[in-house]
Amino acid sequence: APKESARGTRQYARLLDQALSPSRLALLKLIAGFSNLEQQPIYIVGGFVRDLLLERPSPDFDIVVEGDAIQLCRALAQKYGGRVVTHKRFGTSKWQISPPAPALAAALELKNNVPLDLPESLDFISSRTEFYDRPTALPTVERSGIKLDLHRRDFTINTLALRLDGNHYGELYDYWGGLADLEKKQVRVLHSLSFVDDPTRLLRAVRFEQRFAFHIEKRTLQLMSEARELLHQLSGERIRHEFDLVFSEAAPGLIMLRLQQLELLTAIHPALTWNAAQDTALEKALNIEAQTSWGIPDHTGNSPTRILLAYQVWWSEYDSQVVSELGRRLRLPNALVKAIQNTARLLRQAQIIKDLPPSKFCDLLSEIPVYALFALHCLADDDLFKQKIQDY
């Protein structure tokens, strides 16, 4: 396996030791020791390793097992307590460890004053390879070694693996040039059919590019423009999931502008666009202090309000029929579609509405959820209209 020198291994081991809290690190080392006894190589892979090397460590990790993940997970639960949920088809299992059983708490050997901030559960995944029978279909899965497991991932920067068991602790496996691409700050696909296999990667490439201030590699950009039309074939749920992730990023406006520039939005639906004015409104709408002063909750129903606000700002310029069409295409909840339509209508009629007597003004606004009124306030450019919304 391609590995770094011993000095490199020590460096990665140290990075890992610094990135995790004492109790999560103790848990990781417990699992690593256990898998070594079972003679099953285990790794942390993908986004966790990428972020660790970019010095933006994340507390959450999955364990990839070169062998039988379900068996390893069950053996751990048998010894240290907790529940196991398995998915045989994908060779994955979840070890639910919250609250930790006495056997696990004792095995972690933490000093008395160290807080036990363990994850609620840990995912164990058997290394596997995937085959796509046709574009946009879900893959067929087969067990494989770590090298092929990493090859099924989207971009080279997400193919790095850190091995954890025994003397291998801290060894970096880089089969597909991920480390070099991290250093070059570029997003590159692993093979020429990557976007054909999964067109959601078109949206993901832009998300990573903007999140890290990287650039999409030249050949990858070319493949993206060739695969653009495939976005038509994706289900509304899958596209919406990608946009939900975009709106959860720190700077979603930059991602949306880049999607517009690469003509990926119109490939989803001809009406979809994004402009700089929406960018400004979105920034206002996602301002946490402003949301707090309006008493806007984190969640509305099951959805993060942040995401609902983003759709409000994005679709406020479209007429009612287009909003209905887009809502159907992306499978948005009816309540959200209706709120967007109402907000858009009020925005168009701002000049007339602002002069209405307070009672009539209140009647108009009473149908609209508070997050949609806040979006309306962020979108409006007439000061009197804004003031009346705020007074209401």
How far is the N terminus from the C terminus? Answer: 65 Å
Average pLDDT rating? 91
CA-based gyration radius: 24 Å
Q: Tally the helices.
A: 22
Q: Which strand order spans the largest sheet, edge to edge or round the barrel?
A: 3-4-5-2-1-8-9
In this structure, how is the largest beta sheet organized? 7 strands, mixed
Portion of residues in beta strands equals 5-15%
Q: Give helix % range.
A: 40-55%
Name the shape in a single word: globular
Number of strands: 13
Structure report:
By secondary structure, the protein is an alpha+beta fold. It has helices at 6-19, 22-37, 47-53, 69-80, 102-107, 146-151, 178-184, 194-197, 200-212, 218-227, 236-247, 252-261, 265-268, 276-285, 288-293, 305-315, 320-329, 334-348, 350-353, 358-365, 370-379, 383-391, and strands at 42-45, 63-65, 83-87, 92-96, 121-126, 128-131, 140-143, 161-163, 171-173, 186-187, 215-216, 299-300, 303-304. Strands 3-4-5-2-1-8-9 form a seven-stranded mixed β-sheet. Strand 12 (299-300) and strand 13 (303-304) form a beta hairpin. Helix 14 crosses helix 21, helix 16 (305-315) crosses helix 18 and helix 16 packs across helix 21. It is globular and about 75 Å long. The termini are far apart.
Task: List the topology elements.
Layout: H1 6-19, H2 22-37, E1 42-45, H3 47-53, E2 63-65, H4 69-80, E3 83-87, E4 92-96, H5 102-107, E5 121-126, E6 128-131, E7 140-143, H6 146-151, E8 161-163, E9 171-173, H7 178-184, E10 186-187, H8 194-197, H9 200-212, E11 215-216, H10 218-227, H11 236-247, H12 252-261, H13 265-268, H14 276-285, H15 288-293, E12 299-300, E13 303-304, H16 305-315, H17 320-329, H18 334-348, H19 350-353, H20 358-365, H21 370-379, H22 383-391
